[in-house]
Predict the 3D structure of the following.
Amino acid sequence: MNAPDAVGARLREFLNRPHADTRAKVLEIMREAIFQVPAEVDRDTHRAQVLAALRRLADEGLGGLAFPEAHGGGGAPERTIAVFETLALGDTSILVKYGVQFGLWGGSVHQLGTTSHHARLLPGIASLEIPGCYAMTEIGHGSNVRELETTATYDPDTGEFVVHTPHEDAGKEWIGNAALHGRMATVFAQLEVGGTAQGVHALVVPIRDADGRSLPGIRIEDNGPKAGLNGIDNGRLWFDRVRVPRENLLDRFATVTPDGEYQSDIESPGRRFFTMLGTLVAGRISVAAASVSVAKVGLTTAVRYSGRRRQFGPEGEPEVPILDYRVHQRLLLPLVATTYALHFAVRDLVERYGGALRRQAATSEAPGDEMREIEAAAAGLKALASWHSARALQASREAMGGRGFAAANRIGRLRADTDIFSTFEGANTVLLQLVAKSLLTQFREEMGDLRLMGWVRYAAERAGTRLSELNPIVTRRTDADHLRDPDFHLAAFRYREDRLLVSVARRLRGRLEDGMDPFQAFNECQDHLVALGRAHAERVILESFQDAVVRAPSPGASEPLRELAVLFALQTLETERAWFLEAGYLEPPKSRAIRAQVAEVCRELRNSASGLVDAWGIPDEILGTRDGTTRGDEHAER
């Protein structure tokens, strides 16, 4: 790796916060041979190597960091996500296997179970003695968890639940660890007690014996070759009247007595359902963090290479590095800025999440408003980060020309492996609608008993206040000082979010007052809801980035971060300039000036570009390249 200068060292130190010790430990382990997956590897070998790597992580105590200390864990969910984020710099199958075993399977037992489940299962999950699955998704009901068709019917005569797949399309689909290694599964099923349906609940169901044979009533199929992540043994599961003890119900939020009485402190079935789904929040935060790491890998390789690859130039003079070309700068550097922005937004969310979990555990209460806000933030960041990583990898491949197609650069495999990130833990467009609906609900709650018209009017007044904060003369300003002003950026982002909230509320109100079914009303406004969700997430990201600039040490870190924050904000405004022009927030001369400023900031960042990606601290052994060139081929292109 290139030796970092003093500025890069200070920046790297700041970026490693918090939990730098955990990240360093994981990076050191990842240098070992078992974590270095060959470019060409058959599926069976890859799966075996991934399992061996997972065992190595478990042996180092990195599997149970999020679990309670009373049961051998570390009591530190933030450190678990730090491990996940760091693993994403390497083989992505190892990353996902870690997430399935310790995050989804272990996390569901931890978050949905009670002390008896924790004592019985968590130590074995953390040590990998009990490999398991998270069986939620069904063939016929992907994202629609509420309508899952697997059933769990209580039999009071035996004190058991009967878990059953009613037809072929109700089988569990794409279940990591199911095809080969899983011995137990958290199964989400429609609970029926005394002839009454109680909605979706989770149960622990054994699926294999200690020798790896399927248990009676369990049918397992391998999903087979995939477009990526072939080191993961994804499979399908069907249950034929499989009986499990009553104690296998994960009963933190609802329980069934031996004689068949259903009990829950959460009276509302809808609230109970969404409380149970809260276990997904850690997965969404983790995928967002991993997406940022994946973008860092691609961009580090591409920026380094572009800084040394020479092509064309003035007649009679030496060729120039391709990063000197404006179009190349505009291709890569805004993506570097966005990666930095997402880095800080995800880190902030991880700390909020860890704090909320500890407060929740201390009170033994169901998740409240704080956790619901975190769930919405996680949904938005997961969507934007996973889309960003896909764009960053594609741009990195193109920026490197044919060299980007070399397997040793890992960009091709990463593109294939992480394409599914836009679907993992919820499809991105669905998640952005969740964010928008959360904002609408929050407004309604803030307004108390006001009718829809009342809180729409309030929202309109709030948006009007945002606009009035800017003097009409200011809205026409095109000077660099104004266009680079963080206050201008944040005001614009907030205005866009508020305006979209007002307008979607008006559209929904009109349809509902005309008697339209709520489902149809939301369907007709679906694109608007997605736009609102994106605007909200981008505003949150900008605020996190600007806060990081203020917190960063100076000199050394705050200066480059300030310039990157400006680039992130301006390129977002440029991307959304059609909306701002239609809304009357920008005039054409100002839109053109923003475009010019994006190019100018990219030019100013050109000479520090390599240092900015080096500050991410990805070792060459993990990156797969040296100075942006394929190993052993450093002098091939001149």
About this structure: The chain has 22 helices and 13 strands. Residues 626-638 have pLDDT under 50 and may be disordered. The first strand starts at residue 132 and ends at 135. Residues 200 and 273 are 7 Å apart (CA to CA).
